[in-house]
Write a structure and sequence with these properties.
Layout (H helix, E strand, L loop, with lengths): L1 H18 L8 H11 L5 E2 L5 E3 L28 H8 L6 H9 L1 H9 L15 H13 L13
Antiparallel strand pairs: 1-2
């Protein structure tokens, strides 16, 4: 029993750096099912044009969204709402925490992020269950390019 506990602790400690910067705390397999709701508007298409998840074109391609500045997907630039572009200009880079809050209520997120009561979102869909959004994030990250761990700066 002690060996099992030590092994479990070792695996947990080895995995900790992968999750320390919030890459994905959800379950990618569960996220695959939840993403069916998202693909009405979004696809996941790799940089070579390979279709990972075929979906709609009303929303941007979500391939490589991790650490992307909000409102900057090249093939979607003319379709973004002004508030999302402003959020990107103000420093919003997609990470799990912001993604979860945004998808739960895009308009509310932008109003808060920008401190602007008039902020709007073109994304009207809301995914209310936090675990569902975390699972979708895990699915998106798992189907994107390899995510490099962030390095801590030392002085």
């Amino acid at each position: 029993m002690k060996i099992f506990k030590l092994a479990a602790l070792g695996v947990t400690l080895m995995a900790a750096p992968a999750f320390s910067d919030g890459h994905a705390t959800g379950n990618a397999e569960d996220g695959k099912g939840v993403f069916k709701k998202c693909k009405a508007c979004h696809s996941i298409i790799d940089v070579d044009g390979g279709m990972i998840v075929k979906g709609g074109k009303n929303g941007p391609n979500l391939y490589g969204v991790y650490n992307r500045v909000a409102g900057t997907q090249k093939d979607f630039l003319k379709k973004y709402g002004k508030s999302l572009i402003k959020a990107g200009e103000a420093g919003l880079m997609w990470n799990e925490a912001d993604f979860v809050t945004y998808v739960a209520d895009p308009k509310k997120f932008l109003k808060t992020y920008l401190s602007d009561k008039k902020a709007k979102s073109k994304m009207s869909f809301k995914l209310k269950k936090e675990q569902d959004v975390k699972d979708v994030w895990a699915f998106i990250v798992a189907n994107g390019p390899a995510v490099e761990p962030t390095e801590e700066k030392t002085d």
